[in-house]
Amino acid sequence: MQGPYMQSQNNHLSLADPENFNAFYVNGNVNGLSDYDLGNVYNSRRSLNGVVAGYQPRPHRNGLRRPEELLVYGNHQLNLNRNNAHFQYRSAAATNGIIEANDPASLLMSEWRNGSMYGSRYHPNYSSTLEDLRGQMFFFAKDQHGCRFLQTKVEEGKPEEIHMIFSEVKDHICELMINQYGNYLIQKLLEVCNEDQMTQLVLLVIDDDRTLKDICIDMYGTRAVQKLIEHVTTAEQRALVVSVLRRITVALTKDMNGHHVIQHCLKFFSSEDNKHILNVVADNCLDIATDKSGCCVLQQCVAHAQGEPRDRLIAEITSNSLIFILNILMDGDQFLHIITEISNSPNFLRVLQDPYGNYVAQSALAIAKGTVRTTMSNLIAVHYAFLQSHPHGKRVLARTKGSKQRV
Question: Where would I find the PUM-HD domain in this sequence (predicted)?
Fold first, then answer.
């Protein structure tokens, strides 16, 4: 089947006059073009309606049937017109998913993905290089296929290629961290960065508190920040990270994504590195403990803290625990049960003398009223001899004598 614009060459339908492209374009349709052999037009990188034409030449070499094998299925001309719709290639990086003719980055992405710039991706000798993408790696990092290509280059581990990618994307790290594709490239880079490169990235990420918070609470960004925490190597880098995280710790502990960042600090940094974060948690103990995510963080803080930060944290938790319980359980019977259980415990004296337990006893005395408070005060008085000179016990005695404030 040969139309006025077609000719047979080696069993393939081809354009009779590839340079006279307008002759084939009528009323929005491409007439007389074989969608199985568009090598001439394809290689000249013409466009239809401002949209890149991206059909690969001779796909029958990849297992597709030849045009003449399809001629028995209805009118081939109609099939060609119908297939015109497939000339619109889509890209996740382009506006509304459509490749815009006036967007150089979008066109470049389309040409790269479809092989029209550097040859067919299906050609056995085709191999794109980083040099092909120079100056455009930020755009490619936000594309699914482009990002995978860049990740592959990072995984290959060639220092000059890693440096090239790093140099082009570092100033966009905050945006890429929250991109559904770009965050994976950033994670790969963080795994292979040298000390100087890591310091540069840390400084860029912590430059603005609000930006860092937005990254940490983002579903993609939180993974990238966690990866950064895993791979910082120097005390200076850890101090830089903590210096900013401490200012947004409370908000992060109560966020479903952000709390993972704080827990990652607890896991990968030392108690000394985390002391400022632990102090913030201790200062806001009750607020954090009453949040679903915050409660998990609080438990991890106790598990990982050591020395003075841990002592302070436990003291704050203990001193607030009874108040918290009683605020939740305001029912009279439950209130009485808690006070009675504390008072009748065989270890009651040890509780009164304990560095943390004495705060529980003081809190109970502050809240209890009437006969409940009188009973508890009498039980404490029984142990007067053991409490009057004890550094913690004497505080409880002071409370029984009417002190308004916890001692």
Answer: 104-407
